[in-house]
Amino acid sequence: MGEGQQYVTIEDVTKIETPEEPIKLEHKQGEVWLLDFWATWCPPCQRPMAHNQEMLDKNAEAWKDKVRIIGLSIDQSAEAVVKHVDDKKWNSVEHYWRAKSKCSDTYSVRGVPCVMLIDQNGKIVFKGHPASRPDLEKDLNDLAEGKELSGKDEAEAGEEGAEAATAAVDATTMHAEIDEFKTKVAPELQTALKENVKDFPRAFCVMVAQQELSPATGESKTTYDNYRVLVGPKDELEKVKEHLNEKVKGGFKVILREHALG
After folding, report:
1. CB within 8 A of 124, min separation 6: which ones?
2. pLDDT averaged per 10 residues in sequence order, the chain, 262 residues
3. Both 107 and 205 in a single domain?
4. For site-directed labelling of 64, which of 7, 70, 244, 253 has its Cα 20 to 30 A away?
5. Do 165 and 146 have their domain in common?
6. pTM of the entire structure?
7. Are residues 91 and 137 in the same domain?
8. DSSP 86-120
9. Are 113 and 166 in a shared domain?
């Protein structure tokens, strides 16, 4: 299940504080949700979850009874999530543990982080990596006002380019490049750019490989993209872009979203 479909109630999850009590996540008419599948052990999940907390801190009054941000952990234990959330002070987010729920299969979540935006009528208006949306705060405000999600995803807007990029790389090569990025390139980037991005509200460099099956034709299409979302001081932003161009290479399509501050 995904974008354009109605949200189906997730069952058999638990609150992280009471992992022995299964509950349902039921959407109520008029609510706007950001549902974030994540894990404490997942490095790319940490900044999006911190951003969830920041958005809630900023919009506590405006979003009261209108917008819910729900973290749904796929960790092995709820206790690990409780400790992590408390240590990070991410307590404004509504935290749940997947437990015995089949929600990952229901919503075809094959990697984290993965977020879903759900509008007031319970329709899923976006599903994917949080870096795929340039301004989630605006998305939530728009949906809370009853507006449609704005800003067509660049991956869709550049569909022909994405297909061309993916066509040049077979599945074996693509997976090898992603494995190298996860095990070698990404850790090196985190070390090399730590000081450069310390004042960045948003700094993502993630690989997103997605395969979609068309219900109408039965044909599958794979996209292979490298999202680079950079929001920070102009001088440092340029240095980060230059470093990424030099160190992150492959058969993917680069989708750059940048905003210089100051």
Report:
1. 1, 2, 3, 4, 5, 6, 7, 116, 117, 118
2. 93 97 97 97 89 96 96 95 97 97 91 94 94 91 94 45 46 86 91 93 82 65 84 94 94 89 82
3. no
4. 7
5. no
6. 0.65
7. yes
8. HHHT-TTSEEEE-TT--HHHHTT--SSSEEEEE-T
9. no
